[in-house]
Description:
Layout: H1 2-16, E1 24-27, E2 30-33, H2 34-44, E3 49-52, H3 53-60, H4 63-68, H5 74-83, E4 90-95, E5 98-103, H6 105-118, E6 124-131, E7 142-143, H7 146-149
Parallel strand pairs: 4-6
Antiparallel strand pairs: 1-2, 2-7, 3-6, 4-5
Helix pairs in contact: 3-6, 5-6
Amino acid sequence: xxxLLLENWKKYLNETTKSWDQQExxxxxxxxxxxxxxxxxxxxxxxxxxxxxxxxxxxNLDPEESAQTSDASPEDFKSxxxxxxxxxxxxxxxxxxxxxxxxxxxxxxxxxxxxxxxxDKTKTIMGYLLHWKKDLLKIPHSEASEExxxxxx
Length: 153
């Protein structure tokens, strides 16, 4: 009985959770697979650079807002953030209105919380910068709806 329960649990996890490289990032132009972003970064030789976690937090790091756009609760968001590994660089997209995290929201939130606890106002996290027009639109993606395409981005 226990073996069957474990097998069913493994099957459920495999069906409902995507690996990190199969997760998605979307904007008004479409949806990108995270693995494709990382392949582009590697192919183009884009170098890592430091990003201010406070600057990134302006657009990306509200667990309450995240809960409104996903199935995860704020508690789930925080739990996932605490379990994240800061050694992996994030991916940031530069839009006309600021920087947005395409990959690494949980890691950035974790870095910001650690900085707050330590009283460090200059905390940075390493990542890659993609420009929305120069880079992002060249990466294979699914197209957005006609309504979304009317966005200024």
